[in-house]
Amino acid sequence: MGGDLRRDAEAIFDASIEAVLPRKLVERSLKRSGNELTVLGSGVTVKLKKNVYIYAFGKAVLGMVTAVDGLCHDHIVHGVASVPEGMVQTLRNKLPHLVPPDTCLVEIIQGAENNMPDASAHRAARRIMEGAQRTAQDDIVIILVSGGGSALLPLPADGLTLQDVRDTTMACARQGASINELNTIRKHLSAVQGGQLAAAVYPASAITLVLSDVVGDPLDVIASGPTVPDPTSFHDCKCILKRLGLTAATLPARVVQHIAAGVAGRVPDTPTGEHVAFQTRPPRVHTTQLVGTNAIALHAARCEAEARGYTVIPWGSAVEMEARAFAKLFAAKLHTLRSSQEQHRICLLGGGETTCVVSGTGRGGRNQEIALQAALCLPPSSRDSMLILSGGTDGQDGPTDAAGGIGHGGLADLCASHGLCATEYLKVAVPPLCAAITLPILPCLLQSSHGTRYSLLSPALPQTQNNDSYALLDKVGLHLRTGLTGTNVMDVFIGLSVP
């Protein structure tokens, strides 16, 4: 693989991250004039009178807290931010301008190691909920939300334990649940998500700023929608568990009982749009603003690619399908473009979030799975002329220390030189619809791919073998490593082809 090609791909990826760093996004969304704070684009203005509370949760909120503190420091009374374990030190070493100063009154609690709810995140969630419940009518609560917020705001509903929630989340994830499905389950096992934080804040004014890590940017799904009405129900949870093949035999007994009680109406469902907490009745305000998206990241990536001499072919920012099925589609499209435009420098650019069914005891993540599968679909002769990079903008792909992976057509030969067989690290059954898609027919399927929202989610089949993309990419030096980035707007997919 040509070093220049890899450097170009990594620079394009870095540009996408730079565009969605949270501090600059917040500074574009809020404006202070004297003792008034305006939420740009919403028409909402509130009076500052030492009445500001900040509650934040997610992989990207540290920089958001820093921005709000810079605007409102003299009016902040209290705050709590729940961020990933290790985030403060990582950003202090790499991006110190995203870390709040020592004078900031927001308490930073780190937890949810490897994207899983833990005792530290639970303590942060409890502190946030208790603080929200203490606010009064004249107070202003600024709530900062980003991807990863679900795991960083784990406050189980009455009768459930944190372990119940963790076990259920893991069971759903291993069966290939989409992020929408995971968040529907989480909301109904929670005392704070699914609009319940907004209900706790009432009657104080609430301003929520959101960075999206979900395809289509649905506010009720991002971080499980703690400050917006919830359109899902306990009945939806029941249907999701059935689709995933999860039963009372494979789920915690308390979770099964809780969902059954919700379906029967014995446990209140999450608040809908009719709830008073979602109404704006001056002087009280309630507003939720989307400030960062995958589309913004892709625009910056496109600009960087064009500056490096590439003709950019947009795939769109709505990829939502099984990881290996997408990898085959993406590799086939790149190969088709190369065949028709051999003399051009091509950059195929897309974004979104795939799903990855985990089997056995291997390690990896959806982006590493994409890189490995895509590499096996590219012709060996393209080793120095074609490359595919798949990376998570948060810098963490699954429960690993890699952001993603890089694949090229020479991967199989490279593996052989290390005594490895690449296909042995992808031994996991693919849902029937995905398995039916083979490369010879892909070009005709891809003619209308640009801007299309793909969804090929199918029930997982029984698994018996490992998929272990992390181990293989580590051995051959094809990991994408950025460290935690301080932001999170899903994944970016880059395919490069040069003459």
Summarize the structure.
The protein is of the alpha/beta class and 499 residues long.
Task: Describe the overall structure.
This protein is of the alpha/beta class. Helices cover 36% and strands 18% of the residues. A hairpin with a 4-residue loop joins strand 2 and strand 3. The longest helix has 18 residues, at 323-340. 55% of the residues are buried.
Percentage of residues in helical conformation: 25-40%
Task: Compute the CA-based radius of gyration.
Answer: 23 Å
Total number of beta strands: 15
Secondary structure tally, helices: 18
Order of strands across the widest beta sheet? Answer: 6-5-4-7-8-9
Give the N-terminus to C-terminus distance in angstroms: 13 Å
Q: Which runs of at least 5 residues are low in confidence (pLDDT < 50)?
A: 428-464
Name the overall outline. globular
User: What would you call the structural class?
Assistant: alpha/beta
The profile of the biggest β sheet is: 6 strands, parallel
What portion of the residues fall into strands of 2 or more residues? 15-25%
Mean model confidence by pLDDT: 88
